[in-house]
Amino acid sequence: MHAPKDNQRRTLDRVLSKFGLGSRTEARSWIGAGRVTVNGKKIQTPDFWVDPENDRVALDGHPLTARQKQYLLLYKPKGYLTTYKDPEGRPTVYDLLGGVKDFVFPVGRLDQDTTGLLILTNDSTFGDHITSPQSKVPKTYLVKASVLLQEEQLDRLRQGIALDDGPTRPAVVKHIRDGAKYTFFEITITEGRNRQVRRMVEALGAKVLKLVRTGIAGIEIGPLEIGKYRNLSEEEVVALGGTVKKPSRSGRPQASRANPGEAPRRNGRLRSGADETRRRGRNG
To answer: Which of 185, 216, 247 is the last residue of a domain?
Structure first.
């Protein structure tokens, strides 16, 4: 089925998921079971296109209503999958979200062995903005490489390095320290390809022994304990390109949005994601 030209329209399973009712897999199951109607008509095709603003969508006879927007920051531990359910029964990040009533989805992914900052939300526009390559949202990682890297090798990362899916954008790289056998460095990228940082290091002839995402657009983990989550502040949401409603002088709600690439403020000054990122896990 071809997608309509109207950018507002979405497939039915996606609409159900983005309303915070559950994952797209669950939504497809509900649709197939005949539990969903559109404008009073039962629809059992998950790829059926609807306009969530104008079409009347209901689950079990209950019309969909917009949920309160949620924006969470989770300190993901090693060994957890960034998925809703795992067929093999391995732990997922959802096992760490006790107390979160509405369905939220990860903004981008961290692989099972990667730790650090993971944002989850039920705001699809917000999530799409952060993950879109066009947004160039900076993401900062602390890397422990399996060998001692020379400055010339780090320069290759700074200039952009060839991968099997094309050259990367230039990265901001800061050499942290060398151990007896390993190099620790910080890298900030503005892309989100699959296993990108690991593949960039492998292109240098090394392996990643430890990978921690420490920041996104200047948002940091801070004192948050591993395996715990917190709500993003309104200031952080705006800094990441989201919108919050603030009262205007007339008393009516007004949306506020950050300038592209703007980092959150501390003591009235903007922070740089690459320069201000706190060091976590340096000892590997």
So the answer is: 216
pLDDT tens digits for 58-88? Answer: 999 988 877 788 999 999 999 999 988 888 9
What does the alpha-carbon distance between residue 235 and residue 75 come to, in Å, rounded to a whole number? 19
3-state secondary structure of 130: helix
pLDDT band at 133 (very low <50, low <70, confident <90, very high): confident
CB atoms within 10 A of CB 67: 16
Comparing 283 with 5, the larger pLDDT belongs to 5
Average pLDDT of the chain? 83
Q: What are the residues whose beta carbons fall under 8 Å from the beta carbon of 103, sequence distance 6 or more?
A: 17, 20, 21, 22, 23, 122
Out of 86, 111, 113, 155, which one is annotated catalytic?
Answer: 111
85 and 75 Cβ atoms separated by less than 8 Å = no
- Sole residue written with tokens 């199951």: 29
Give the range of the structural domain holding residue 15, as residue numbers without chain letter: 10-63
Q: What are phi and psi of 176, to 5 degrees?
A: -90, -60
pLDDT of residue 264: 39
Pick from 87, 66, 60: nearest CA to 20:
66
Q: Is residue 197 within 8 Å of 143, Cβ to Cβ?
A: yes
Q: Is residue 4 part of a domain?
A: no
Q: Are residues 114 and 236 in the same domain?
A: yes
Q: For residues 175 and 154, state if they share a domain.
A: yes
Does any domain span residue 156?
A: yes
Q: How many domains does the chain have?
A: 3
| Residue 229: CB atoms within 10 Å | 22
102 belongs to the catalytic site: no
89-105 as b/e: b if 16+ CB within 10 A: eeebbbebeeeeeebbb
Indicate which CATH number applies to the domain containing 75.
3.30.70.580
Question: Is the confidence at residue 193, as pLDDT, over 80?
Answer: yes
The pTM of the full predicted model, rounded to 2 decimals, is: 0.72
